[in-house]
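Sequence in, structure out. Go.
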Amino acid sequence: MSLISKSPKVLSMAAMLASVTPSTVFAQTQDSPQPPLAVTVSDTNPSEGPEVKGFISARSGDKVQVTAADGTKTVVTINDATRISATKGILGLNRNKLAATSLLNGLPVTVKTLQSADGLLASHIKLQNKDLKTASMIHNGTDQRFAEQTAATEALRGRMADIDQYNIKGTTNVNFDTGKAVLASQAKTDLCAAATAAEGMDNALLLVVGYTDSTGSEELNQALSEKRAARVVNYLQQACHWKPYRMLTPTGMSEADPLADNNTAEGKAQNRRVAVNILVSKGLDGL
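Output:
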């Protein structure tokens, strides 16, 4: 039985999600080949560009592809100055400080742009809070009524299938003490080294996945694995200066996929880890 609600809104968005992958950025379809987006301007200073409406059909690094109702595809660039907000939020208030990780495939958006010599730059991306909730539900593979811990863990495992769309260029593991989510000095050094290595690769993204050993309950370990992943993400962004829009949604995997035997102290030490994976979309690798 599907874990996703059967409402028309979810089914419609699920269909859009199924039709797109990160590797479709700048790709041409067999039925209707289209050239990559090209913008030519004479002024070196950004000027007001067109408003773009549609749904997010692909993400790659700081690039977001938006597909309009007529099938027109437009690629815009996001940066630290891009404002992302959701309207009609809780109590009808606006949320003006959404993270770039909120820009999920299938999400309807309205984008105000600036036109520069390098193309279109997104100055403001607007979305509906209800659409964000639905897209997040689909992205996570579960809904709010599904609270059992084992099933939630399996939903998280399902998200890892997205890795098949990428080439893994490298993985850095940092380890933790039992029951802790504190980064050691060596771990901090290793994380910034991983960020530096990824920065030298075109179109690289980071996927952060937290794990635990077999000590403790499933519920506690799930929360601990997510806390460790969040701690690593924060350090990568704040200390290693990795851009948030080049980060895939972090995941906690509890005690799944152990690297070593959980029946030994040495094995448990290896399994208490966060893996930082450097990924490049297969469709963009080598470009």
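Check: Residues 1-11, 17-43, 89-94, 141-161 have pLDDT under 50 and may be disordered. The radius of gyration is 20 Å.
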